[in-house]
Design goal:
globular, 6-stranded antiparallel sheet, alpha+beta, 34% helix, single chain, 5 helices, 163 residues
């Protein structure tokens, strides 16, 4: 990948590890960089510039009063999937921030949750080539039965770092 940043370089090194180690290592490291994501127990299953898949187990620490994954935890899941993926393409001389989160809860969730965010190659290039901008990132969240329970859209923005 051209124009590597620190995150994409790190992910490239992790991809050289045995396959069975890759998801636990990237999940651990992302949890250290973003402690809130780490406390929720999210697991990064795939992280490339064009796709990110993150799973959250339905454990007590992320549950609501009816035993399913809490709405706020699903927001974290959506933000993490879109942010990690966007972060792979934003050059190191810029800072990335979330500008907007839109989540529509359609059906009651059952079991573990999975978020899938994706970009086209053109969107990745736009992020790399645009010094200051933003991008809308859709993410699909499904439950343990494979049912889409949440439709989400995040808007990520980036600006040059102050010197």
């Amino acid at each position: 990948m051209a124009n590597k940043n620190k995150l994409s370089t790190l992910v490239g090194k992790i991809e050289k590890l045995p396959v069975s180690w890759q998801a636990p290592v990237i999940s651990f490291l992302m949890g250290k960089v973003i402690p809130f994501a780490g406390t929720s127990g999210t697991r990064v299953e795939k992280l490339t510039p064009t796709e990110c898949i993150i799973v959250m187990r339905n454990k007590k620490k992320v549950q609501n009063h009816i035993g399913s994954v809490h709405a706020a935890a699903m927001g974290l899941l959506a933000e993490s999937a879109t942010g990690f993926m966007t972060g792979l393409s934003v050059p190191d001389d810029r800072i990335i921030v979330i500008r907007s989160m839109k989540l529509e809860y359609g059906k009651r969730a059952s079991g573990d949750m999975k978020a899938v965010a994706s970009f086209s190659n053109e969107q990745v290039q736009f992020i790399k080539d645009t010094p200051k901008g933003d991008i809308e990132v859709p993410v699909v969240i499904t439950d343990g039965t494979g049912t889409e329970t949440v439709k989400a859209t995040m808007i990520w923005a980036w600006t040059p770092k102050k010197k």
